[in-house]
Design brief:
It is built from eleven helices and 14 strands. An eight-stranded parallel beta barrel has the order 1-2-3-4-5-6-8-9, surrounded by six helices. It has a three-stranded antiparallel β-sheet with strand order 7-11-10, with no helix packed on it. The protein has two domains: 224 residues, Aldolase class I (TIM Barrel, Alpha-Beta Barrel); 88 residues, no CATH class. The longest helix has 17 residues. The two termini are 16 Å apart.
């Protein structure tokens, strides 16, 4: 499938659907993608998702309000039903629907009833998938857009298919817009995704390492220091998530096995967020308002982390990505040229 790309603005059809200037999307990273980062990405012409997995409805409403106070542009919310207790999920949905957010991204399990409910409320529904079969199921359930998440992605990784292969398979399988996610940090990555038929790129690690990100400085600095091949795909960080799920993180004392069996009985507190304890082997990553042993927490990062060398503003990172992608796509040698 060939997607026409307007080179002057780097717009694709999905930009019109979501009301953004550029096909660059902030991943709804739990804890990290808060209002300051979402508003910054939206004001720079991208589209941002608040990462609200397992968050209280009061916080969700407050974060939505803060984004709206900082930007007139539309934005979305990321929810993960499989990792959220049913009662809390219901309260989250009620809050999101009552606030009339523009879009909601769902990840992991696909519930047609949930998709229909969000659609009926006027929300655009995105579903992040790890295979073409999952993409087809998401579209059958009513998803407006699918996000093809390659094995290179940081954080929770759904499948094991490299992004380049996955984009081609998903684009060939579904007739809705496809966004690419996994290891994307620069304009070269964006241009490659567009050339394969994706209509945009969802970026996590690249925006985690920005000034507006709610990630703790320790996490940002570890990304800046990352070397090629340093990320690890592991199930060691599992508390708070369904069994058998894997994440991609930077190597640390946990991935090196220095704390014993992650699945042994008992829990050890290694930090805190207000009154909430942070446990060793939990899926919590270091945030601005946390204290504790950050080195042993989940330091999420995609395989592109080694190519991130600074901590700019979100607007600066987005502009650099867009400018580089436009140069590549305008090149006579580009497959998109002509």
């Amino acid at each position: 499938m060939h997607i026409f790309v307007q080179r002057q603005t780097l717009q694709t059809p999905v930009c019109g659907l979501l009301g953004c200037d550029y096909p660059v999307f902030l991943a709804g990273m739990g804890g990290v993608a808060r209002s300051e980062l979402v508003a910054a990405v939206c004001n720079a012409g991208g589209f941002g998702f608040l990462g609200m997995v397992r968050e209280a409805p009061k916080l969700i409403r407050a974060e939505i309000s803060r984004v709206r106070a900082a930007t007139p542009r539309g934005f979305g919310v990321n929810l993960i039903p499989a990792a959220t207790p049913p009662d809390l999920l219901e309260a989250e949905l009620e809050a999101v629907i009552a606030e009339h957010v523009a879009a909601v991204t769902l990840f992991w399990d696909m519930s047609p009833a949930l998709v229909h409910r969000l659609r009926a409320a006027g929300c655009l529904v995105l579903s992040q998938v790890g295979s073409a079969d999952e993409a087809a199921a998401a579209v059958a359930a009513g998803a407006h857009i699918v996000i093809a998440q390659g094995f290179e992605a940081g954080g929770h990784v759904r499948g094991r298919i490299p992004l380049k292969t996955l984009i081609a398979e998903v684009v060939a399988r579904v007739d809705v817009p496809v966004l690419a996610a996994g290891g994307i940090v620069d304009g070269r990555d964006l241009a490659a995704a567009l050339a394969l038929g994706a209509q945009g790129a969802v970026i996590g690690t690249g925006f985690l390492a920005t000034r507006e990100s709610f990630a703790h400085d320790y996490h940002k600095e570890r990304i800046i220091a990352a070397k090629p091949g340093e990320t690890v795909h592991t199930q060691a960080f599992h508390i708070n998530w369904p069994a058998g799920t894997a994440v991609r993180v930077l190597s640390n004392s946990v991935t090196r096995g220095e704390h014993g069996d992650p699945f042994a009985a008992g829990r050890r507190i290694i930090g805190g967020q207000g009154q909430r304890p942070i446990y060793l082997f939990s899926t919590d990553s270091p945030l601005r308002d946390m204290t504790g042993e950050f080195e042993a927490m989940a330091l999420y990062a995609g395989t592109g982390a080694a190519r991130i060398e600074s901590i700019p503003t979100a607007a600066e990172r987005l502009a650099a990505i867009v400018e580089e992608a436009a140069r590549i796509l305008d090149s006579p040698s580009s497959p998109e040229h002509g």
